[in-house]
Amino acid sequence: MTMTYPGTTALITGASSGLGAEFAGQFAARGSNLVLVARRADRLEELAQDLRSRHRVTVTVLPMDLGRAGVGRELLDELAGRGITVDTLINNAGFGTHGPLVEEDPDTIAAEISLNVAALVDITRAFLPELLASGKGALVNVASTAAFQPIPGMAVYGATKAFVLSFTEAVAHETKNSGLNVLALCPGATRTEFFDVLGGESAAVGKMQTSEQVVGTALKALDRKDTPGSVVSGWVNRVAAGFAQRLPRAVTVAIAARAVQDW
After folding, report:
1. Half-sphere exposure of 169 (CA within 13 A, CB side)
2. What is the CA radius of gyration of the chain?
3. Considering 27, 127, 148, 157, which one is annotated as catalytic?
4. Catalytic residue check, 157
5. Would you say 127 and 89 are in contact if contact means Cβ atoms under 8 Å apart?
């Protein structure tokens, strides 16, 4: 069964490029109106114009830095003032850092935790009542295959994504009889701007997927009669995540360290 979303609205964070832009395109193709949130107003407007033209949907652009306390309520109030209610929430905004923790910039680490964890929880909590009342959409939080084991060399990033996975699976169980589909999406290395921010592709593990493949995995999971609480994109990544959960913890940490460290 292919779910369609005519007459609904999807709020997508980190929507200016990569997975966020791909989610926007695929949800628009299924009939959903959109609210696109990211810092880069010019990129959002360009994407919005294209989607309006191709899919005849309503697209609202909100240029915003999400790494601030109380951003969930701020977003909710802004949309309420515009008469917009949200049926689907896709928490995609986030970034990673790479290197030994002792060499990381403390301010960058704080921003990483604020965006990857605090903002995601705050936005989820702010919009969850609307999502549950609608029962016609989904909650998708973008985690990572980094969630399945500690990552020496990406210690903070891996820990934030482990949080996202745990948090989302718990919320999925709490809301399992509500009609809302809740999903933690766990991509591996994906060809997006993520590695530009990270400083290169040295931390990429395995063959890169495209944004289209990763978002396609999420939509297939949402199309299922019983949407799982989490899904790993790509069969190689699924096998690796399975091994990471079965091998002794010390072994998985050592393997992860060799995979991402380049110093």
Report:
1. 13
2. 18
3. 157
4. yes
5. yes
